[in-house]
Amino acid sequence: MKDGMKWQKVLQDLLTVYSQETIGKELGLHQATISKMALGQLKSIRFEEGLKLLEMHKKWLAGKK
């Protein structure tokens, strides 16, 4: 699986409970950037953004238990 596809999956999960705008604010990115990420139009993201995104996903997974 390509890295971009992994971010897409993480975003798909998060978008079930958060808006693109909310995710963008958490990561310090514009909503349009989150949209491009969700559509697989971005090849990569910065390390810090990836960490924040994974932390959000970790919290989301913990809430599903």
Provide the descriptors you would attach to this structure in a database record:
4 helices, 65 residues, 434 Repressor (Amino-terminal Domain)
Fraction of residues in helix? 55-70%
Order of helices and strands: HHHH
* Outline type: globular
Tally of DSSP β-strands? 0
Averaged pLDDT: 89
Distance between the termini: 26 Å
Rg over CA atoms: 11 Å
CATH second-level architecture: Orthogonal Bundle
How much strand content do the residues show? under 5%
CATH fold category name: 434 Repressor (Amino-terminal Domain)
Largest sheet: none
Q: Structural class of the secondary structure composition?
A: mainly alpha
Q: Outline the low-pLDDT stretches.
A: none
Identify the CATH class. Answer: Mainly Alpha
Number of domains: 1
Number of helices: 4
What does the model show?
With 65 residues, this protein is mainly alpha-helical. The chain is 69% helix and 0% strand. It has four helices and no strands. It has helices at 3-14, 20-27, 31-38, 47-63. Helix 1 crosses helix 4 and helix 2 packs across helix 3. The longest helix has 17 residues, at 47-63. The radius of gyration is 11 Å and the shape is globular.
